[in-house]
C-alpha cells in the first residue's frame, strides 16, 4: 500500500517548495489582512457588533483567500509537465491529491491562526479562552475548503478564465462550510461561549463525504 | 551507462483510436514492438506521433483499443510496467535542484538503493557537477538530461522519446546519440519520434510512419528507412 | 415527428388539467385563499427540478463510466431544464411571499437552499462554456456535476440547521403543515403534470444537443476536405 509513503514524499515536496519561496503564504496573509481592515469600514466595530458579524467576516475572508491561493495548485504542475511526471511515478493518483490537500489545509490554517490575534485586537473580541475550539473549527473548515478547492483547481486548470472560474465553482459548493463554520465560530465568540456540536458535525460530515468523493473520482480529474 | 537490470519489454498497441470530439488524432493504429527493438516513429507535425507516444506511456486514455507490455521472461510482472517517457518538457520541478528532483521521483517509485542510484544516474547523464543547481537555471540540453535521468530511474524495459533532438545544440545531439546507442545496445526497447534523418535516426532498427493518424509505412513490410524518414519533408 | 407531437399533446392536456384542478377542484385554504393555490405549481415545479438534477447526476456517473457522448447530452439537457424549474420556483416563491408576508424574500431554509442549488447548476453551465474540446468538457462537467449533486443534501441540511439557530417565518408549509386529502390529490397530480413537462423538455433539449453534435461532425469533415 504505497499511498501513505507516496503522499508523505509529495507532501514533503509541497511544503519544501512553499517554505522556500513563501509566496503563497505571504500573499494569502496580506489578502486576508486587507479584507479584515476593509470590512471594518462596513460596520461599526464595537465589541458586540464584532461578535455578531466578525465570524462571518473571518470565514468570508478565508473563503476568498482560499479561492485565490488554490489557483496555482494544479496550474503550476502544467509547467514543465510535472503532472505527467507525477502520474508516471505514483501507483495511486490519489496520493497527488492527498498531499496537496494536506499542504493546502496547513497553509490555510497557518494564515488563519496568524491573523486571529490581529482580528481579535482590531475588533475587540477576546479569543484566548476559546482558542482550542476555534482551532478545531478552523481546522475542520479549512480541511473542507482544501478538499473541494484542490479538486476544483484540477478542473479549472484545464479551462479558460480560470481565475474567475475557480471561485465561481468553489463558493457555491462550499456553502455548508461557510454556514456551519460561521455559526460555530459565532457561538464561540459570544459573551457566553458554547460549542454547537451539530454545526461541528456538519463540517465534519462535509469533509468526510468530499474526501470520499475525491478518492473515488480523483484519477478522472487528472486525465488528459 | 550501466545496463538496465530488468529484461526489456515489448509493446503491443492494438487498434488504437483517439478522437477529440469529431477529430480523429489516431485511426486504428496497431503496432507490435519486440523487446530490444529501436523504433523510429516518423511523421509530420500533427500526424499523431505525440498522441501515440502518450497513449503508450499511459498518460492519455485511447478512445478505443488497448496498450499492453510483454516480456520474454514468463515471470516478470508486465501489468504495471510504466515505461520511461521523455518529451520536450523537462518533467522536473524548476524550483528544486537536479538532485532533489531525482530523489523525489526515486522515492515515489520506491527505487532500491536510492542514494546510489541517484548518484550514478546524475554522473551518467553528466550532471554530477550541477546536481545542486536549481533546474530553473538549466539550459535546454541540461533539462533533457534531467528528463532522461528521471526516465531511467525505474530501469524501464521500454523508453519512449518524443522528438528528443529538438532544441539541442550539436554537442547535445551527440551526447543523446551516444546515450541512446548505449541503451539500445544493452537491450532496452526504444521508441522515438523524429523529424527527418539525423545521427539519432541512424540508431533505429526499424522505422514506421504516421500520416494523419494512420500507420502508412513500416520497414518491416518493405519500405526503406530513407523513404520513411524523408517523407516528412515532402 | 409523430411521437413528439403526441408527447407535446399529452403534456398540454396534463398541464391544463392540473391548472384546472389547482384553481377549481382544490378546496379553498382558510388563511390565504386564492393565493395559496400557487403552492401546487410552486412545490410541484420544485420536485420536478430536483428530479431533473437527479437525472443529470445519473447521466454524469454514466458518462464517467461509459464515456458515451449521449450521457453528456442527457446531463446538460437535464441540468438546463432543472435550472429552468428552479428559476420558476425562485420567482413564484416571492410572488407568493409579497402579499402573504409583505416582503419578497425571508431567507427561509428551503428557499435559501434552493437559491444555492440554482447557483450550483449555473456554475455547472458556466464551466461548460469555459471548456471548448467536447470530450474534455463532458468529463470535467460530469465530475463537477457529481460533486454538486452530492453537495445538495449537505447544503439543505446545513441551512436548515442554521435556520434553527435563527428562527424566521417559513415561506410555504413548514414541517407542521399538512394537506387535506383533496389537496393532496391535486398536489400529486400537479407533480405528475410537471414531471411530464420536465421529461418532454429534457427530451427536446437532448434532441437539440444531438443535432448540434451531428452538425459539428459534418462541419469538421467538410473543413478537412
Give an overview of the whole structure.
The complex is a heterotrimer of chains A (224), B (234) and C (225). Chain A is mostly helical and 224 residues long. Chain A has helices at residues 3-21, 23-39, 47-69, 72-75, 82-89, 94-123, 131-156, 162-173, 175-189, 197-221. Chain A has one domain. Helices cover 80% and strands 0% of the residues of chain A. In chain A, helix 3 packs across helix 8 (162-173). The radius of gyration of chain A is 18 Å and the shape is globular. With 234 residues, chain B is an alpha/beta fold. Chain B has two domains: 1-83 and 157-234, Rossmann fold, CATH 3.40.50.300; 90-155, no CATH class. Chain B is 28% helix and 26% strand. Chain B has six helices and nine strands, in the order E-E-E-H-E-E-H-H-H-E-H-E-E-E-H. A six-stranded mixed beta sheet of chain B has the order 5-6-7-3-8-9, with helices on both faces. Chain B has a three-stranded antiparallel beta sheet with strand order 2-1-4, with helices on one face. The longest helix of chain B has 16 residues, at 170-185. The model of chain B has no long low-confidence stretch (mean pLDDT 87). With 225 residues, chain C is mainly alpha-helical. Chain C is built from six helices and no strands. In chain C, helix 2 packs across helix 6 and helix 3 packs across helix 6 (181-224). Chains in contact: A-B, A-C, B-C. At the A-C interface, helix 7, helix 8, helix 9 and helix 10 of A face helix 4 and helix 5 of C.
Unreliable residue runs of chain A: none
Task: Give helix and strand order of chain B, one letter per element, not per position.
Answer: EEEHEEHHHEHEEEH
* pLDDT < 50 stretches of chain B: none
Estimate what percentage of residues of chain A fall within beta strands. under 5%
- Could you say how many structural domains of chain B there are in total? 2
